[in-house]
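Question thread 4412

I'm putting together a teaching handout and wanted feedback from people who do this every day. The idea is simple: show students a protein as raw sequence, then show them the structure tokens that encode its fold, then repeat with a second protein so they can compare. Below is the first pair exactly as I plan to print it.
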Amino acid sequence: MSDTVLDTAFFVRWMTAAAAAVEREADRLTELDSAIGDADHGSNMQRGFVAVAKMLQAGGPAAPGEVLAAAGRQLISSVGGASGPLYGSLLRRSGKALGEAAQVSRQELRAGLQAGVEAVAQLGGAAPGDKTMLDALVPAVEALDTSFEAAAAAAERGALATVPLLAKKGRASYLGERSIGHQDPGATSSALLFAALAEVAK
């Protein structure tokens, strides 16, 4: 799998699959967010990814990095709340790291996403264990070394592992102890992103 070559069409399929996954799971994301947030994560993410899918259908980005950067810009401009800037930074910085190459390898994608995850950590001032999207993103990117499937599984495990955590960042942190026992919506939507990646890679 290490010599897998990923082209622009692959990245368009990935973002389109992510949009479909967010669409499917929007109600669950909102339900999770209603317990410890503003109850808008599902609708915000859905609105953002619908806009991303529309933009990609219209054509435009000519390289893998451009697909991610354009998707990131779209999310920043169309998603409310904290998730727009965070997801936007993730994809924009990842896209920037991939540059203008017409094709990238799985290892190059991993390095690009690593840069994106660092941008998210910087912007949110969070670290793994704070009950945020980083709890899914960090293990997922590490597991990309192994395979796309391993990354998706690691993201899913990371999201589930947020249930017993005390939220230290974001809206959920205002709840203190009451944030314990709830799965983090951001980590859950991050897991959807990697599930879509594994699905498209098949």
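The second pair follows. I'd like the answer to focus on this one:
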Amino acid sequence: MPNLRLAPLTAEIEANVRRALIEDVGSGDITAQLIPAERLAKATIITRDDAVISGSAWVDSVFRQLDPRVAVHWQVADGDRVKPNQPLFHLEGPARSLLTGERSALNFLQMLSAVATRAQYYADKVANTQVKLLDTRKTLPGLRLAQKYAVTCGGCHNHRIGLFDAFLIKENHIAACGGIAEAITAARKIAPGQPVEIEVESLDELNQALAAGADIIMLDELSLDDMREAVRITAGKAKLEASGGINDTTLVPIAETGVDYISIGALTKDIKAVDLSMRLSL
């Protein structure tokens, strides 16, 4: 499974921020014009919540694009765990620019830190097992790479990035292709080098997927007993991914069955923004 790192994301970050500033600032911040253009200020951004930080590069890009005179001094790094009232970073520069950039910068940081915090919460729960927790494609439109990066800051892992980088053959695909073996055979012909993952809903379908040479088999809402049996039957011939019905109650028992992966849409979908605050001083 891929795991996004920050270095290749530079162009994506710049584009994310460019769109955010167009959306928020538009033709100009008319309220900031109340402040004399030459006035300088400092600001400190704190968290009001326990959190895992993610999104510092997006914050840097907001102020770099808005006004290169603004200096951003980080007190924490992506992946760090922070406590309420802890300073995250300091700003110095024209007061207008600090205030204009505040909301866009904090929007990125509060959302991406929320993803990282949720990911760390789940990762901690299964730390004593060998399972890898994966995200899904249930992301905010236009911010998938950002959210998938945040997942890695919280200690979880990326599933496929989109529809282009791996096969995930589900029930309707199987029906349209005429069966499990037919779908896998067709996938191998279309893109021989791409991983082929297929969804199964029973142990019988698992055996069909194994016989057809699937790389990864997604166990869709199988019982715990069937998952354990799937691990025994598979015996390392393919990777097994559990999916569906994953929550605080079911996560650890599923991890303990011995599956290789658990995919969780809630890592990016069901999040609550981290509460952040900016304190300005002139």
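Top answer:
Good format. For the second protein you could add a caption like this: The two ends are 48 Å apart (CA to CA). The chain has a mean pLDDT of 96.
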